[in-house]
């Protein structure tokens, strides 16, 4: 073992330590894990009957949980004051403090004060004044002005995720905390979702450059900033990652090397890729952290400095967090309505719509019985706006209008804005884009009147989607970019992910697949880190389509199947049907007709079971085009007519138009030009009151060609084509304008 360590750690090496929460769990530090914090807070903040179910949720992130705590219960995050009861450093804290004194560097993502306490215990009264925890923006900028940190008299500790206070100076530094999902995404520049803030980069790069980076007590789960930053700077000499194990014997220590990235954990893949791409040596050492430091690292790095003798007190001297938290006013007698709101949002954050709805409906009943108008309004809004909502659109609108009236009565513009957005979304789903835009603009104007930057995110996002639906791609991109600009200031990453995906979809539809893929991959990474599985299935759906467009069919299948597995895991039947549809389409493209039909039938079965009319129409259309491409026109026509019947039940114009178009294409192939022409007349009649110039132009062109084939009337046909050409000129589509010129030339030459 020592011989191997000799090769890993050389006498000339300088060190920087990156340390996470795991270093503070050992006695006498005895800081509870994030999981323990969540367990105790859950017991206080949710209805008793929901405790066990919520705690069983493996995907519940500490940051997501704290987001809701701060929103509803503890705005100042006073529960973190518990860390002031944990001021007795353990051996690891003393080891790190000796390294700071020896001019090695320590970076921590922890909120506790144990490294500072160890430094105070080791230094004289005069030297203690030189302890400088780097917490605030100004400190990062000031310290970066020092050219040679080794010559500085200060003892520096870089607290990368901030701290509630600077215990050396007593200064309140609450603004620095990065402990919620929003704060993890806040103050990021464009393209910096997964890295530390720009003002921290200069000095952190400096303290890592040309040094051995040793990672302790850290699982690598903070991928919002740490690991991406380490991938970005590539200035360190080598990385040694101590992966903690419970066994304390030296013979249990294992040094791992990686020859491929198969079956590796997230941080193992990180080490493998750094080594492979940048030729930087990386080591993963599985060891009990305390044992590895006391038996190997202390002597190797600190050499003659004696190991600090730690007095481990009896655990009973420490207040228990579960008992301590009961003394905070914020957590005493939390009212039942707040508990139901909180529990619902926890389920919602985990994409558990069914339990979110159940809890919020119960909360609604309680709010009504207590005449709590604010609670009633919020529960009404939440229930009516849930994804995968089984309610009719008219019922949802009724609930949202009722909530809006209550919010107006309460002079609550935020609640009113939320209702306006959700009403707009219902109209958008009904393809009534004009009404949808009207409600979105009302919501945006309401937030702008109150200078609410964060509140403008959702209406901006919705306006982008609405503009995209009517073909205004440039306007859509403008709105999406505004969303990203806002989120980079406010930090709500779920909306950034949505905006990135929507931008990707716009580029995909414009044929810029590589560009689209970059945006969608970034959106997917945010979703993975937020743990939002339904959103992951949507991103994977689009990513699969892009790989398909690029001809990379294996990657397309991989993306579709990844999404399908996730959708099946959470019973997301809508995504399941959609992904099965895409997999069937890909098999059809590859001429695997039997597999395609089998998979489409599975998707249709789901659609029929859950009355998913839109998806059913799309799948029947795919099956129809498959038959059409094989020359089975009668089968194709039967499938398209079946799709039309379903679309007309729903009454959504877009689906009726899409299916009419399919029937017209087959009719044209069957040389039934009269039927094709009459169908295009119906399509244009449906479009006459809408604003989608692109669709009007497309179908005018098709109608002109069908009319000529039907009647031989070249003058009228050319007039129709010129009308279409004029619309394409308004759109700036020179390619299609040229194609129509060829259509007209063909008609002239046929006379």
Which terms summarize this structure?
single chain; 751 residues; mainly alpha; Serine Threonine Protein Phosphatase 5, Tetratricopeptide repeat; 8-stranded mixed beta sheet; 8 strands; 5% strand; elongated; TPR_rpt
Secondary structure: elements and pairs:
Blueprint: H1 2-8, E1 15-19, H2 34-45, H3 51-55, H4 62-72, H5 91-101, E2 105-108, H6 114-122, H7 125-128, E3 131-134, H8 137-143, E4 155-159, H9 181-184, H10 198-208, E5 212-216, H11 226-233, E6 238-244, E7 254-256, H12 266-278, E8 281-287, H13 289-302, H14 321-324, H15 336-349, H16 353-369, H17 373-384, H18 393-409, H19 413-429, H20 433-449, H21 457-469, H22 473-490, H23 493-509, H24 513-530, H25 533-549, H26 553-569, H27 573-589, H28 593-609, H29 613-629, H30 633-650, H31 653-669, H32 673-687, H33 693-711, H34 714-731, H35 734-750
Parallel strand pairs: 1-2, 1-5, 2-4, 3-4, 5-6, 6-8
Antiparallel strand pairs: 7-8
Helix pairs in contact: 2-4, 4-15, 5-6, 5-13, 8-10, 15-16, 16-17, 17-18, 17-19, 18-19, 19-20, 19-21, 20-21, 21-22, 21-23, 22-23, 23-24, 23-25, 24-25, 25-26, 25-27, 26-27, 27-28, 27-29, 28-29, 29-30, 29-31, 30-31, 31-32, 32-33, 33-34, 34-35
């Amino acid at each position: 073992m020592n011989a191997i360590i000799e090769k890993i750690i050389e006498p000339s090496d300088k060190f920087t330590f990156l340390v996470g929460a795991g270093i503070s769990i050992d006695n006498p530090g005895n800081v509870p894990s994030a999981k323990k914090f969540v367990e105790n807070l859950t017991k206080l903040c949710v209805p008793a009957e929901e405790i066990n179910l919520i705690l069983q949720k493996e995907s519940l992130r500490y940051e997501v949980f704290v987001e809701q705590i701060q929103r509803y219960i503890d705005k100042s995050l006073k529960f973190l004051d518990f860390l002031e009861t944990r001021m007795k450093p353990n051996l690891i804290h003393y080891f790190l403090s000796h390294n700071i004194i020896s001019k090695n560097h320590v970076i921590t993502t922890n909120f506790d004060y144990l490294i500072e306490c160890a430094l105070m215990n080791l230094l004289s009264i005069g030297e203690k004044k030189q302890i400088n925890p780097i917490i605030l923006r100004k400190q990062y900028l000031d310290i970066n002005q020092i050219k040679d940190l080794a010559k500085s008299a200060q003892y520096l500790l870089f607290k990368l995720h901030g701290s509630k206070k600077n215990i050396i100076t007593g200064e309140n530094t609450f603004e620095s905390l990065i402990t919620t999902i929003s704060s993890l995404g806040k103050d990021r520049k464009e393209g910096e979702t997964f890295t530390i803030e720009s003002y921290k980069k200069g000095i952190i790069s400096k303290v890592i450059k040309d040094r051995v980076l040793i990672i302790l007590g850290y699982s690598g789960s903070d991928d919002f900033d740490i690991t991406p930053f380490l991938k970005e700077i590539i200035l360190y000499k080598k990385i040694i990652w101590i992966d903690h194990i419970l066994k304390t014997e030296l013979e249990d220590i294992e040094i791992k090397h990686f020859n491929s990235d198969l079956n590796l954990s997230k941080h193992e893949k990180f080490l493998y890729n750094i080594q492979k791409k940048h030729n930087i040596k990386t080591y993963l050492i599985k060891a009990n952290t305390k044992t590895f430091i006391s038996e190997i690292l202390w002597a190797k790095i600190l050499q003659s400095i004696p190991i600090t003798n730690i007095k481990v007190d009896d655990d009973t001297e420490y207040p228990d967090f579960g008992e301590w938290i009961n003394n905070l006013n914020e957590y005493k007698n939390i009212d039942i309505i707040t508990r139901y709101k909180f529990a619902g949002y926890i389920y919602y954050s985990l994409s558990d719509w069914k339990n979110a709805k159940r809890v919020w409906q119960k909360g609604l009943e309680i709010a009504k019985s207590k005449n709590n108008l604010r609670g009633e309004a919020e529960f009404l809004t939440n229930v009516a706006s849930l994804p995968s909502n089984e309610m009719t659109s008219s019922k949802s609108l009724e609930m949202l209008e009722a909530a809006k009236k209550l919010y107006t009565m309460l002079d609550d513009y935020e609640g009113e804005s939320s209702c306006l957005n959700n009403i707009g979304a219902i109209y958008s789903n009904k393809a009534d884009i004009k009404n949808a835009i009207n409600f979105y603009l009302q919501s945006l104007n309401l937030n702008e009147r109150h200078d609410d930057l964060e509140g403008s995110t959702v209406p901006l996002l919705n306006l982008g989607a609405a503009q995209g639906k009517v073909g205004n791609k440039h306007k859509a991109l403008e709105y999406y970019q505004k969303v990203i600009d806002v989120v980079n200031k406010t930090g709500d990453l779920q909306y950034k992910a949505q905006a990135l995906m929507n931008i990707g979809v716009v580029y995909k539809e414009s044929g810029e697949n590589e560009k689209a893929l970059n945006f969608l991959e970034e959106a997917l990474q945010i979703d993975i880190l937020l743990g939002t599985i339904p959103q992951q299935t949507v991103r994977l759906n689009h990513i699969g389509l892009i790989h398909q467009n690029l001809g990379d069919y294996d990657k397309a299948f991989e993306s579709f199947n990844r999404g399908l597995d996730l959708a099946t895991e959470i019973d997301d039947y809508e995504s399941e049907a959609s992904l099965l549809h895409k997999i069937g389409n890909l098999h059809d493209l590859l001429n695997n007709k039997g597999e395609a039909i089998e998979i489409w039938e599975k998707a249709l079965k789901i659609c029929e079971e859950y009355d998913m009319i839109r998806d059913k129409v799309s799948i029947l259309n795919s099956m129809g085009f498959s038959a059409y491409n094989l020359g089975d026109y009668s089968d194709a026509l039967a499938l398209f007519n079946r799709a039309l019947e379903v679309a007309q039940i729903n009454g959504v114009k877009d689906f009726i138009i899409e299916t009419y178009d399919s029937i017209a294409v087959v009719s044209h192939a069957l040389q039934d030009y009269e039927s094709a022409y009459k169908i295009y007349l119906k399509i244009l009649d449906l479009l006459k009151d809408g604003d989608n110039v692109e669709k009007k132009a497309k179908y005018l062109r098709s109608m002109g060609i069908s009319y000529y084939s039907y009647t031989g009337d070249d003058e009228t046909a050319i007039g129709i084509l010129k009308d279409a050409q004029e619309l394409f000129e308004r759109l700036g589509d020179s390619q299609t304008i040229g194609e129509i010129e060829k259509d007209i030339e063909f008609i002239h030459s046929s006379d």
